[in-house]
Specification:
This protein has a two-stranded antiparallel sheet with strand order 1-2. Helices cover 59% and strands 4% of the residues. With 281 residues, the chain is mainly alpha-helical. 12% of the residues are buried. It has two domains: 105 residues; 164 residues, no CATH class.
């Protein structure tokens, strides 16, 4: 088969492919909105450009293979030689694209390693007794806003936490802490992110120096602040399964600190630890 016939077959095949895609994109569907028609017209335009580009490349390669065949003394037929050229170039392009894509994936911040997304795979949930809503409905929202009746702007903000509650919370923070399963897993999580976010690991010696729960939480806060909010890993939420009430509030505070908007659950920690951090700085 001559090269001219091959070119004719390529042209006919390409036109047939274009018509087929035009049918799939527009002719198959009658009831279309203006946006859909515009989108599908653009789609056909892009498909046409891709196909025409492939045709130009194919013609160029075919011409080059014919020139090489006529220049070299090859025992193979011209068609077999051309197919081999196409095959070699296809494999070469596939390898180049694969290597390029792998490098992009490594640099792409949105690609998350599966191990990081399933950090805690062996946790067993702790059964918790949940009070009826009537038992805590009075403090369901810890923040109340007072609005001006004139222009409905915020006049005042009231926090529904008493001094006695904060005082009791403060005493609990000064108690000697116990490294529970929750804190062990949380520290392990932060240490696993130390390479990603370039912060120091929490070593056993660091833990031995701590005197109370407050110092432990400050240490964790110091490491957690390096976790970038755009690369926050959802697996930390798994720790809610094994957390007691205080640990649940602390974990909520860690998550809320990523966007500086604190929920009712994390408000006590926010009031206490944010003030401490500001004084410390």
């Amino acid at each position: 088969m001559s090269s001219d016939k091959i070119q004719i077959y390529l042209i006919i095949g390409s036109i047939g492919i274009i018509i087929f895609f035009m049918y799939l994109s527009i002719l198959k569907y009658n009831s279309l909105t203006a946006y859909q028609k515009s989108y599908r017209t653009n789609l056909i335009f892009r498909q046409g450009i891709i196909i025409l580009s492939c045709m130009c490349i194919a013609f160029s390669i075919n011409k080059a293979s014919v020139y090489l065949y006529n220049s070299l003394n090859i025992s193979l037929s011209q068609n077999v030689f051309s197919m081999q050229i196409f095959l070699i170039l296809s494999i070469l392009v596939f390898i180049i694209v694969s290597v390029y894509n792998s490098k992009i994936d490594k640099k792409d911040e949105r690609i998350v390693n599966l191990r990081q997304e399933t950090t805690f795979t062996n946790l067993t949930s702790v059964e918790k007794k949940v009070k009826k809503i009537k038992d805590y409905a009075h403090c369901f929202s810890s923040i109340n806003y007072e609005y001006s009746p004139k222009d409905y702007t915020v006049k005042d903000v009231n926090i529904n936490i008493s001094k006695q509650e904060i005082s009791k919370f403060h005493k609990n923070q000064l108690k000697q802490f116990e490294i529970t399963t929750f804190y062990l897993n949380l520290i392990e999580y932060l240490n696993s992110k130390s390479t990603n976010f370039k912060h120091l690991k929490i070593e056993k010696d660091d833990i031995k120096k701590l005197k109370n729960l407050k110092e432990l939480k400050i240490l964790i806060l110091d490491r957690f602040k390096y976790v970038d909010k755009n690369n926050y890993y959802a697996s930390i939420s798994q720790l809610f399964q094994i957390a007691n009430s205080d640990e649940t509030e602390f974990l909520s505070f860690l998550r809320d600190s990523q966007h500086s908007k604190y929920s009712t659950l994390s408000l006590k920690h926010a009031i206490y630890y944010i003030n401490y951090i500001k004084k410390d700085n």
